[in-house]
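The data are quoted verbatim for completeness:
=====
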Amino acid sequence: MNVTDQHIYSKYSVVFKMATVILAVAAFANTARAASFDITAFGARANDESDDTKAVLAALDACREAGGGTVLVPAGTFIISRQKAESPILALCSNLTLRGEGAASILKFDPKVNQSNFWRMLGSSEGEVRNITIRDLHLDGSNTYPKYVKGKTPEQCHGIYFRTVKGLSENITIKDCLIENFCGDGIGISLGSRNVTIRDVTLRNFIRQGIQLAGREEDGNYLVTGCRDLEHSITPGGSTIHVEHADGTKNIQIIANRCRNSILAGGVNGLIIRDNVVNGRIEGNGNRNILLQGNIIRGTDSPRPLIQFGYASNLIIRDNILIHASADKTNEEKTKRIGIYVWGASRYRPEPSHDVMIRDNFIQSGDTSVSLNGVNGADVRGNRTDHSNKAGQSVSLKRTENVTTDSE
């Protein structure tokens, strides 16, 4: 072997050794992530009245110490209760998959939840957590209240709750779960949350909201898709999907969900509400850069507009089907109904809604198909209207400027 050959061999030997080390580190990391922790191995017992909280926490702690992995909840019912003042009770770590075996894997609140408040089952505490998946689980909040009563119903008892005032929860996926019987929210995503996907989640019997989203300007990139709420045996007090306390939260997509209640959203910069079936209405205030497209909205007995947005900028409403309920209503009540209502420039805020497009919708309403009040800049054309009140009008304009319409 000559000098040149020795140099080449030495060079590639070093590269080979470095590659070997990298592969070994990667293999170790993959092994750590692949570690599995069955909660029954830590003392959890299914289908009895014993409290399994400490056993589940022990499994989560072991996963945390291993640098991540899978915590398995096998089939059976496991009781979770508040231990001290923690929020949430089961704080999740980075690089974690919390997985059940489907609807038979149940984490259920102790019935004592109905006697107090601020029980949050799963989520993040302060600090930074990343890369969390919650899947194939059945969460039961054990609520016994038939409806919301102010001052009596404990409205802060949630199923999944991510909120970090001084931290970050990033890359969160919640999928294929059944979440029911919570007197608070089924799922709450709030401050310090980024890159959140909620997919194929089934909800039932939430007293506050089914899925609630919030955040600051630096938060966002939320996707809610394929979710639905089942028929309720209690009276829900809120929406199926609800965005509030959002202060410029960016990029929220609500796509292809089936909602027995409304979708409400406010304070979002970059909002897409598309291809949903809603039994109620779609409403929001203070949003920017909004697309509502391809939704089917069937109104309830409420006379409120089926789509209503205030203080909106860059709003597109197109290709939606809006149908007002009319059963058991007098002619006078029917005529009060509006399909789409966009407003602004009120005594509370002087700025109008602006840059609005309302095109190619089918609107069945009692009195007015489209009503604009306090809007500067709008294009309202190509909408097909059907009024139960023969004296109804397609477009109503009040305090508007720069509006183009094909209505007679």
About this structure: Residues 295-408 form one domain.
